[in-house]
């Protein structure tokens, strides 16, 4: 596996495209009566600490 650094513009585009994925996942779990939003918030909070 080879890691590459993407140009800043590409990183920004990817972030925009993927920004809603987590929310959509959480909403689907919430609709099933599972704590999707709570899990997503905990995950994002943990990422900020590291």
Chart the SSEs and their pairings.
Elements: H1 8-18, H2 21-31, H3 36-49
Tag the structure with descriptive keywords:
50 residues; 3 helices; 0% strand
Query: What is the chain-wise order of helices and strands?
Result: HHH
**Structural class, from secondary structure content?**
mainly alpha
- Low-pLDDT parts are none
Largest sheet: none
First-to-last CA distance: 24 Å
Question: Would you write up a description of this structure?
Answer:
- With 50 residues, the protein is mostly helical.
- It has three helices and no strands.
- The protein has helices spanning 8-18, 21-31, 36-49.
- Helix 2 (21-31) packs antiparallel against helix 3 (36-49).
Question: Can I get a quick summary?
Answer:
This protein has helices at residues 8-18, 21-31, 36-49. With 50 residues, the chain is mostly helical. The model has no long low-confidence stretch (mean pLDDT 95).
């Amino acid at each position: 596996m080879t890691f590459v650094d993407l140009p800043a513009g590409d990183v920004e585009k990817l972030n925009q495209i993927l920004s809603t994925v987590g929310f959509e996942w959480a909403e689907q779990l919430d609709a099933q009566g599972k704590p999707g939003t709570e899990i997503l918030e905990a995950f994002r909070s943990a990422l900020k600490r590291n």
